[in-house]
Amino acid sequence: MNDALYAFISIDLPAITAAILAASLCALLGSFLVLRRQSLAGDAISHAVLPGLVVGFLISGTRAATPMFIGAGLAALIAVALIGAVRRFGRVEPGAAMGVVFSVMFALGVVLLEQAAARQVDLDADCVLHGQLETIFWFPPSEWSQFFSWSTLRETPRQVVVLAATFTTALLAVALFFKELRIATFDPGLATALGFRAGFIQAGLMSLVAAATVASFEAVGSILVVAMLICPAATARLLTDRLGSQLLVSVVIAALTGFAGYLLAAHGAPRLGLPGAVNAAGTMTVVSGAALVGACLFAPRHGVLARAVRRRGLGARIAREDVLAALFRLEEQQAPATAQALDHLIGAGVSLTKGLRLAQRSAQIRSAEGLWTLTDAGRAEAQEIVRSHRLWESYLVDEVGLRPDHVHETATRLEHLAEQQRIAPDLDRASDPHQRAIPPKR
Amino acid sequence: MHGSAATLTDVAFHWPTWSETLRVLTFRAGYNTSVVVIGATLLGIASGVVGAFVTLRKRALMGDALSHASLPGVLVAFLLAWKLDLDPRSVPLLLAGAAVSAILGVLVVQWVTASTRIGEDAAIGAVLSVFFGAGIVLLSVAQAVPDLAQGGIRSYIYGQTAAMSAGDAWLMASAAALGGLASLLLRKEFALVCFDPGFARAQGWRVGFIDLLLMALLVMVAVIGMQAVGLLLMVAMLIIPAAAARFWTERVGRMVWLSAILGALGGGLGAMTSALAPRLPAGAVIVLVSGLIFLFSMLAAPSRGMLAEVARRAALRIRIATDHALETLILAENSRAMAAPPSTPGAMRAWLRARGLAQVENGRIRTTPRGRSRGERVRRNHLLWTRYLTEHADVAPSHVDWSADQIEHVLGAEMVGRLERLLASDPTSSGSER
């Protein structure tokens, strides 16, 4: 084995493995938090476990996983109970209840940390916040022949083992209780009515989040836990509409984020002209944030750009249809179709120039000597639109019970929808509430 | 690893003496301590006032998001100042950086919430963690620069109350004054937007603009307060006094005043405590003292506190138990089945006798006239309600007793009158007997 490879295996590989495991673990659970609108519960728990961690540490005197796990688990339970009590008795919004509890518990943790610092042990607030990914090492034998043996595997860094175990547990729990989690996530009321214990599922989810927080904090720090609970899940939320793919996508995004973030921090930063490697956990949060911003902008269905394009298309269609309908009405009244006359007839906030341009481009209207006329194709579509408008007006008067002089505005907006197809059969009539003929269907 | 046989108590903790305590409490513990106590008190007032409105607006955790979001701004300002050969420790510069990135964070939260399907909770959490992560990256960049002292930066994260100067205290004073003045002038607008933004919009108020003003006040207080208690714990200064004040009153105006007072108490007493225990981080001590004030409010507030609530429930339970015991006694007396006297527990017997509702004759418990009339009233309510349920609510006769048992105790005189008029006949003629 050459030196570069050995360096990679002993320095980079453990850190990357820990980062990917922690990120995937958080993302898996985070999807449920984001869908249940409880994202900040993850934030609250990751702050509130601090006193438990420190007490577990102070009592045992070591950074062994078990006492800290127990301490943090107890702290998480206390936090959840306190948040519930404050919500119930204080009648404040859940955010404020969480804020009160987690900030006080975090402050308690900070005070207790001073006790640890007084004994010159390496547990400080920095370590809790941004982790010590850079200090996870693995020194396997340098010969491939001895590589895959029990004694080698036993040397696997503790953080990696703890994270792998927690990830497996969480994966099993989610797989076993997938149905329950799904129903409790999307319809807690129905879940309770069907006999699933929504409160029980909630408690289980919170326990898993607490376990993930504790398992991850030493490697990646609590700030990355919060980011990984929320960002990959929110990113996936913009990319998919199904729970199964939501989980898969968020875990994949998280794993990629962990990998890319580490490489960028450890090897990218020096090449970018920075004085040295930068904090890996922080870089991962920034990468996950960048992925989220990217999804917000460019997601195919739910992204801002896709929606803007859709809205533009809708706006264009409405402008064109309004122009056609206006021309049809003017033809009915045998009035000259000047631009001014058209402008009176199209909907508020609709651009006449845009509508004329689009209708002309699709050969639905013609202009001659300042007057506009419908082509046959244009008249066909215009007739459909006016028919839709007048059917809607009839529906609004007859079925909704509005006054005839109050329905035009609403019908102007509804005429562009396709729903009149479903209403039309019931409203087979010759004239609208204003005694104008409803044109026949073509 | 150290501390192999250590316990929690073996770190020498110096308990302050009475004379020390008295000196701090009477502002005679030196100029610096007095400045810190006054500054923390003023900060408590500012954050209490602004926090009250923010909490009522249901944006409590926005304060957390924006204080975390200010970290990268602080570091960018710090690194820029160093590159441009300015003083990288200049407080106004760092605060300006903090404010810019905090505002950016708030705007990102609003943009994400308004223009995507992601909820406000996820948007707040994402901004909070990503901005803070960016700050941590920049911090590690700053740490990698040789000969660059970044000691001042850490105080923005963890706070450095003890290092507060007179200038900082003046800053807190102006924040408190500005926050107080703005809340005084805009209290109607803020309250309206907090309680019913839809109504406010329909009335023609510019809700977005009022929200923006509130957010601006929040950014100001959070950025100024960060130096003192640290950005991690700034959210506590904003939420705790407001949430504690909520226990004492139902009126907005009073809640804002109380929140300011409780904030001042938390800040002042916290700073005094940390002056007596200088080894403990002051920001955290202030938050813990505020937490104690909150705990006291939650327990002891007269009408909404937990103790009052528990007492109310106990009183109700006792009343219901008494009603039931009297009902049972009367039923037994009416049916003359005295051979098998009703099993009234001893404690209940004593209670009924003490209240003059029953007495013991020949070793048997019997109702007094007062007890009898109360028991009959309850019994009558029960029957009225069962009849109402069977005749007007179409509930099966076998299903009505349980709900009547719940309702018979809380039927008011007016409701009984209405039921009687509705049923307009002898209530004992129908309904199920127990």
Structural summary, described in words:
- The complex is a heterodimer of chains A (442) and B (434).
- Chain A is built from 20 helices and two strands.
- Chain A is mainly alpha-helical.
- Chain A has a two-stranded antiparallel ribbon.
- In chain A, strand 1 (365-368) and strand 2 (371-374) form a beta hairpin.
- Chain A starts with a helix and ends in a 19-residue tail after the last helix.
- Chain B has a two-stranded antiparallel ribbon.
- Chain B has helices at residues 18-25, 31-56, 60-83, 91-115, 120-144, 151-158, 166-185, 187-195, 197-202, 207-229, 234-246, 252-276, 282-300, 306-335, 346-354, 369-392, 400-407, 413-423; strands spanning 358-361, 364-367.
- Chain B contains 18 helices and two strands.
- By secondary structure, chain B is mostly helical.
- Chain B is elongated.
- The chains are: A mainly alpha (442), B mainly alpha (434).
- Chains A and B meet through helix 2, helix 3, helix 4, helix 5 and helix 6 of A and helix 3, helix 5, helix 11 and helix 13 of B.
In short:
The complex is a heterodimer of chains A (442) and B (434). Chain A is mainly α and 442 residues long.
